[in-house]
Each structure stands twice: as C-alpha cells, then as structure tokens.
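Researcher: I've been going back and forth with a colleague about how Probable 2-phosphosulfolactate phosphatase might be arranged in three dimensions. Neither of us has a model we trust, so I'd like an independent prediction. The organism is Clostridium pasteurianum BC1, in case that matters for your notes. Sequence below.
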Amino acid sequence: MKVDIIISADDIKEKKIFNKSVVVIDILRATSVIVTAIDNGCKKVIPVLTVDEAVKIAEKDRKTYMLGGERDALKIQGFDFSNSPLEYNKEKVKGKTLVMTTTNGTRAIKASSKAKNIIIGAMINARAVTKKLIELGDDVVIVNSGTNGEFSIDDFLCSGYIISILKRECEVNLSDIATTALYIYENNKDIKSFIKYANHYKKIEELGLHEDLEYCCQKDIIDSVPECRDGIITRK
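Model: Here is an independent structure prediction for Probable 2-phosphosulfolactate phosphatase. You can compare it with whatever you and your colleague have in mind.
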C-alpha cells in the first residue's frame, strides 16, 4: 500500500488522488464534527462550499435539515450550529441531515471528489479509519485540509498517527512527506504538546474553546467511519 499526503485543500490535484482512497482530515474542527455527528445518529452530512448554497439546501425542510459550520472559526449567522463537535449530540442530530460549510474542511472534501473512495478522518476515529483503509486495499492519500491554503501542524500530526497504525498492521510504501509525518508523530505522541504550536490551535484557544480542543485531540474514541459518495456523507 502506497501512502502519500497532500498538505492543504489548495494543493489537491486530480492526478494525485485518482483511483486512490482519500482520507480527508480537518481535526480542528470540521472532520471531528462530521465523525461525531454521524456517530450520534445524524442521517447524512452534505458538505458545501458557500453559505448561500447551504441555506438553499436546508430551506427544503427546516424540520429535518440542520445548518452547521463556521467562517474564521466563528458560528455563521442564522445557522443552527457552530463548528464545535460538542454541539452535535444525539438529542439534536439523530435522524437529521446536516448541511455544512467550513473554511477548510468542506473545501477539502469537495476537492477530493475524483478519488475512488473518500473517508472522513480525525484523531477521534483514526484507528477505525486505518481498519477501513486496509479493508479497501487501495493506495492511500491523506488530505490535510490545512488552514486557508497553508500547511497545518494539527492535520499533519493526525496523518502521522494514522500512518503509524497502518505501518503496524500492513506493509506500506511511504512518500517522503508521509515518512516525515510518521517521524514527527513518533516523537510527539503526546500530541497536545506539539499541536499547541499550530496557528489554528492558538486561534481556537483564544476564542475560549478549550473543551473543543480537548475533545478533538483525543485518540480513537469513536468507531464510526463516515464516507462521502456523490457529495453526501453517511456511515457505511
């Protein structure tokens, strides 16, 4: 199994992901939200690029369609939820459809549409993601959503964690950047001690969202592996 990494949503190219299984990561916080919502019974998640598109879809049925997401880490005016995974509990999301737009994560998901498989990953479901990748048996590209088109420490460290599990479970052929992610993770297994240097981590901390940070940095607390097909994310 070949394993490669793309460092931001802006760096996704069709030739890099074609016929491969892609894992989209945005641990702070879009993919952590998606994994949590799906695990808590959300029927499906529809990722979109713009606020207007999200509102138009949700207007079809506001009883069953929820609006969630952020711009610059803040809740979008008129939306039901922000980008905090802690808001997406069973009582609020079970049986509902989430229409979601975020600064980085949903862009990365949409830009990965030409991949053979699109899996939604985070620290909180990393081990389950690796199990799914081994079942699929394809070459893998881990897409880091990044921050505003730039490299992000938090997503890169999560990539390293996923690679570390894959390496223990199957034979892997790592690209140079994948090898670098593995090395950084193996030397920073107490992930918060390193993630705290990420600019996006600092921004969320400045907003006082400490519980979000604690939650998103946990390893393997969820077994759900959401997958995106034809623009819709469900639990397969």
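Researcher: What would you highlight for our discussion?
Model: I'd start with this: The two ends are 22 Å apart (CA to CA). After that, consider the following. The chain is about 40% helix and 20% strand.
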